[in-house]
Amino acid sequence: MVVEEPRSRRVADLFGSSYELVLQVQSRFFVHEDETPGELDALADTLVCLMGRVVRTIGPVLTALPLGPEAPGSTVGPAFEIVRPAFFVLPHRRAAWLVISERLHELSRAAADLAADPELAALGSVAEELDGHAAELGKCLAERGERPA
Predict the structure, then answer these.
(1) pTM
(2) E strands within 1-149?
(3) Most buried residue among 16, 53, 81, 97 by CB atoms closer than 10 A?
């Protein structure tokens, strides 16, 4: 069934994008190139946050939202869809870190925008978590003399 309610669709997109990023960070952690032990710790921390706090927070918010007028009384559920499977394994360390850092920032902004709605205020903590991990990955890039995106 298609999610017709715009606000519900935006939260579903945030969930799906967060799940996609879980897979991407997980792939980078397990198929890494020349990450230092500190960088692997940063990836692991980001992965635990994405799974344990971000996806876990968005899920209940999502399942409380209406599907749309075509399905009165029905609520949205997470799709766990894989939109771009070939995109998960980024072979080059710098490119992978830049993409992951950029996605964390993008998702943080999306969560903050949604959290402005009082009924979606719980997503404010998601925005903070994502932004904090983006900053942490940015520090790792800076330590190598590379600029975050």
Answers:
(1) 0.91
(2) none
(3) 97
